[in-house]
Amino acid sequence: MRRLPSLTALRTFECAARHGHFGRAAAELCVTDSAVSHQIRQLEEQLGCALFVREGRQVRLTSEAGRLLQHLQQAFELIGKACDELRDPASQAVLRLAVTAELAQKWLVARLADFSSRYPHITLHLHEQPIDAGAPAADIDIAITYGTSPMDASTHFVRPLPLLQFFPVCSPGLFNLGGLKRPRDLVRQCLLHDDQDGKTWTAWLATHADDAQPGRQLYFPHAALALEAAALGQGVAMGDNLTCQADLVSGRLVRPFGASVAAMGQYALVCERLRLERGAVADFIEWFTTQISEP
């Protein structure tokens, strides 16, 4: 069996690292400053590396300590939840889900009624997941991420969503004006961006419109706003086969051209493997899997 350092020493380290100060850690733990110093020295000896650089009354984490702190906080969070579930079994049905704004607004929210009807005992808390944020935060059970960085499969369960294809979309009214017969006609339209660097539109124009340079452009912080502006006739947005699905079916948006480009990143459901044993987590993943396999 793996030998672990003293749990008291690990808890003391986490507190001191969080405060950046031994005295404040001592006050929180209701011990003396010297007791904190002793626990830290003991842990450094057991691990064989320095954890803090002393700078007067303040302390600064070493790079090794920074990595340890991240894992410890996640572990303490899981321990706390396990204890909460023993005290209150109903707490096991609380699920914290982080998802990007555009996917939540344009894809997930419409499906939540189905989830609630199937799992009425699960209370869902939605949080916003920034684009390309990587691994979920310590207090998040499941995240639906978007990015290009690979996740460590030894610590995280990852279920990718279908690969995205990007293509122009606009309102039926704008399309019916007749000004979008070929890709180069986009130079006379306002292009609606969902990224601040315009990479998606640049890639599409380079592939299908001979690098045509648009005249007017409008930038939004995420795709849901750009797609809404397109549906209101304010220009042409870059849609995809996931977030545009409902609007294309309903006719709020149309594709003036069939051409598309592949996304550089990919959506994926990500969860720490330690959380997979929770009933609410397993239920959501099972439900989610059926949703992404449906047209």
From TrEMBL:
Protein name per UniProt: LysR substrate-binding domain-containing protein
Record-annotated membrane-spanning stretches: none
Superkingdom in the source lineage: Bacteria
Keyword terms of this UniProt record: Activator, DNA-binding, Transcription, Transcription regulation
Family the entry assigns: Belongs to the LysR transcriptional regulatory family.
GO BP of this protein: DNA-templated transcription; positive regulation of biosynthetic process
Record-linked InterPro entries: LysR-type_TF_proteobact-type, LysR_HTH_N, LysR_subst-bd, WH-like_DNA-bd_sf, WH_DNA-bd_sf
Aminoacyl-tRNA synthetase is among the record's keywords: no
Organism: Pseudomonas auratipiscis
Family matches, as Gene3D superfamilies: Periplasmic binding protein-like II, Winged helix-like DNA-binding domain superfamily/Winged helix DNA-binding domain
HTH lysR-type domain span: 5-62
Species classification: Bacteria, Pseudomonadati, Pseudomonadota, Gammaproteobacteria, Pseudomonadales
SUPFAM superfamilies listed in its UniProt record: Periplasmic binding protein-like II (SSF53850), Winged helix' DNA-binding domain (SSF46785)
Molecular-function GO terms, alphabetical: DNA-binding transcription factor activity; sequence-specific DNA binding
